[in-house]
Design goal:
The complex is a heterodimer. In chain A, a hairpin with a 7-residue loop joins strand 2 and strand 3. By secondary structure, chain A is of the alpha+beta class. Chain A is elongated. Chain A has 15 helices and twelve strands. Chain A has two domains: 200 residues, no CATH class; 172 residues, no CATH class. Chain A starts with a helix and ends with a helix. Chain B is mainly β. Chain B has a single domain, classed as Lipoprotein localisation LolA/LolB/LppX (outer membrane lipoprotein receptor (LolB), chain A, Clam). Chain B contains five helices and 13 strands. Chain B starts with a helix and ends with a helix. Classes of the chains: A alpha+beta, B mainly beta. Chains A and B meet through strand 6 and strand 7 of A and strand 6 of B.
Chain lengths: 414, 255
């Protein structure tokens, strides 16, 4: 076996130019894979994480609310959240449970009712501290003050821009109670925050203020449950455990089982898969070409080796080892070189226009800066792809070499 | 706004010419005669009332009590007295414009745009329903379709068709009690022919020479199981009213 490996090394180094070109193809392909996968990982992973933080990894609503959510049925609320939170918090794997009220409001500055819609959000102080503020930065002002004498509101950046509102302004948030009555709140703008398209589309008040608006004094519309771990499997298992504990009156849904993500996740996975396959395909063609040329050049030599007793399998293995050598060298160098732009994109990202983010609305959590996220998994995947590609590209030429008969090689060569 | 004010917005149908039909059947009144009688019962120079409005959304019900003052069809003012959450909420309608005052927000808000189609306090009566009353007379043509018995009482059935299709209810079918000349039942339709609301009036009493329905039940047919019942507790007609009542000052401060 060692002689086959030596032969493979010798063959690889025999035509340094061609080997270098092949390794460069693998290198470029691997580098592209690193950059593309890390960027997609950063963008899609970031969008997913931000969305999950905003909407909850696991969400509890009443079954009626779940069925008619598009109609915003405020009457189908959770009237008493404290006992439910206590029950859910006792479930293994649950790290945090927060009440959440999200309701549509019209925001106006003057006396005339405006047409600027917003999602009024009210949740616990802990939820804001853990899941909103770490993802946000203040354009101006500060967060809601405890025990403020007058109602206060923090506006998302998009709402503030649409209203031309600034810190210190008094605005009217016109919502509805669960009974359908108009529910106006006059509040001072104390802060303007930005973070992503979801954060920017909302107006934030205390849980008590939101409860008054929808007239659910001790309840909420949703409970957001955060498992101890952020994996999809953990979210699903916590959701199942919660559902079993709280019964059929409520609907517990893990984020990836929501209608939107059931459509989006396969799409996002497909994009990553297709891009990776494209790179592998291009690299395979280059390797195939190089290896085929190598076999043709070495037909006579292969014939001699076969005449001297080399088996077909040995011939195949020799070419495959040569491909692995090229793949490893090209793959590792490609991963190293690809890491440079990948790390740059992780640090600096690509900046998108604010208008583009505003157009997204609050369905997706998009940020104005799209950063990559390079992980060891991605590097390992890219190197593996490089090696695999080299092997795939070498299989056909290697089999062709194995089929060469010694007499045939002698007759055609030299 | 009281039921009485609401009543006026639902009934003033302009007269369609149907003289020819009337002559064919001497006992059948014309639309003009019926509507003139309605006006006599339902209109007043001024009125003050206390009413209770119970909104039932098919699951739960909530009751509001309110005081209403109206002058003609163009001016009205309402102040909610209960429940506690709505106490002090005031509404003012002057010449086709409407404002609300919310005590918690300490703010006057003009109602316009899509808010007009919202149910007043979640009821089956929209703000638009109230607004359309001002020039309602000019909005419909009416004709008598015939007579029907409802609860063993003789009624005249009218069809009212809007002259302008942009009105809230382009078509109405109205049943008018022959004796009281009150629209005890109405069906309000969209342009497509879809039934939007039904409006029933009952418990008719004679007050100051007028036949006054003390109870109304309004159902938004697009909201399953929903109904709003408005019961008049007291009503007085033709009382002297000060201009200050229909002002922003009253809206913000009351009294």
């Amino acid at each position: 076996m060692s002689s086959v490996i030596r032969l493979a090394f010798r063959n690889a180094l025999r035509n340094k130019k061609r080997t270098g070109l092949t390794a460069a193809t693998v290198l470029i392909g691997t580098a592209f894979t690193v950059v593309i996968l890390s960027f997609l990982n950063g963008v899609m992973g970031g969008m997913t994480r931000d969305w999950v933080d905003a909407f909850g990894p696991v969400r509890i609503v009443t079954t009626e609310y779940a069925e008619r959510e598009i109609l915003a049925p405020l009457h189908a609320n959770l009237p008493e959240t404290t006992p439910l939170i206590e029950t859910i918090s006792s479930i293994e794997g649950v790290a945090h449970t927060a009440p959440m009220i999200k309701t549509g409001v019209i925001v106006s500055v003057g006396e005339e009712l405006g047409e600027d819609p917003a999602i009024l959000t009210g949740s616990s102080k802990e939820w804001y501290q853990k899941y909103l503020l770490p993802k946000s930065s203040f354009i101006d002002g500060a967060w809601l003050q405890a025990d403020a004498k007058k109602e206060q509101v923090v506006l998302g950046g998009r709402i503030a821009r649409n209203l031309s509102a600034k810190v210190g302004d008094s605005i009217l948030l016109m919502g509805k109670t669960q009974y359908g009555s108009m529910a106006p709140i006059s509040a001072d703008v104390v802060g303007i925050i930005t973070g992503n398209s979801v954060i920017d589309s909302r107006a934030y008040v205390t849980l008590e203020t939101a409860r008054w608006m929808v007239d659910i004094p001790d309840g909420a519309l949703e409970l957001l449950v955060y498992p101890a771990s952020n994996t999809r499997s953990e979210a699903r298992s916590v959701s199942t455990a919660v559902q079993q504990k709280i019964g059929d009156e409520y609907a517990s849904t893990a984020w990836m089982d929501t209608d939107m993500w059931k459509q989006q996740l396969p799409l996002m996975d497909s994009i990553q898969y297709i891009l990776s396959m494209l790179v592998v395909f291009v690299m395979s063609l280059a390797i195939f070409n190089t290896m085929t040329m190598s076999v043709l050049e070495r037909t006579g030599e292969i014939g001699v080796m076969r005449a001297m007793g080399q088996t077909r399998m040995t011939a195949v293995i020799s070419f495959l080892i040569e491909a692995v050598i090229i793949g490893v060298v090209g793959g590792i160098l490609g991963a190293v070189i690809g890491s440079i732009p990948a790390l740059y994109l992780e640090q600096n990202g690509i900046v998108l226009g604010q208008d583009m983010i505003d157009d997204v609305g609050d369905q997706f959590a998009m940020t104005t800066q799209m950063n990559g996220d390079l992980t060891p998994d991605i590097l390992a995947t890219a190197v593996f792809c490089g090696i695999l590609t080299a092997i795939i590209g070498a299989i056909l030429p290697a089999m062709r070499a194995a089929r060469i008969q010694p007499y045939e090689a002698m007759r055609t060569e030299r | 706004m009281t039921y009485f004010f609401l009543l006026t917005l639902l009934t003033p149908i302009s007269f369609a010419d149907e003289t020819a039909q009337a002559t064919e059947q001497s006992t059948q009144p014309t639309a003009a005669e019926l509507l003139a009688a309605l006006d006599g019962n339902l209109q007043s120079d001024s009125q003050e009332s206390t009413v209770q409005m119970t909104v039932n959304d098919g699951r739960r019900s909530r009751t509001f009590s309110m005081k209403s003052i109206a002058r003609g069809r163009t001016h009205s003012a309402i102040e909610y007295q209960t429940p506690k959450r709505e106490k002090g909420t005031r509404m003012l309608k002057v010449d086709g414009q409407m404002w609300l005052y919310f005590p918690r927000a300490e703010r006057v808000q003009k109602i316009s745009g899509h808010m007009m189609r919202q149910g007043m306090m979640g009821s089956d009566v929209s703000y638009e329903d109230m607004m359309t009353s001002a020039d309602f007379d000019d909005m419909y043509d009416a004709k008598v379709l015939g007579e029907e018995m409802i609860d063993a009482r003789k009624h005249w059935k009218l069809e009212a068709t809007a002259k302008d299709s942009s009105v809230s209810y382009p078509k109405r079918i109205i049943w008018i009690d022959d004796e009281y000349r009150i629209p005890t039942k109405q069906e309000l339709y969209a342009l497509s022919g879809l039934l939007l609301k039904t409006w029933a009036m009952s418990e008719i009493k004679q007050i100051d020479g007028k036949n006054v329905p003390m109870k109304m039940v309004i159902s938004d047919e697009l909201k399953k199981g929903s109904s709003t019942t408005i019961v008049t507790e007291s009503i007085t007609f033709d009382i002297p009213l000060q201009d200050q009542i229909f002002s922003r000052r009253w809206l913000e401060r009351g009294n």
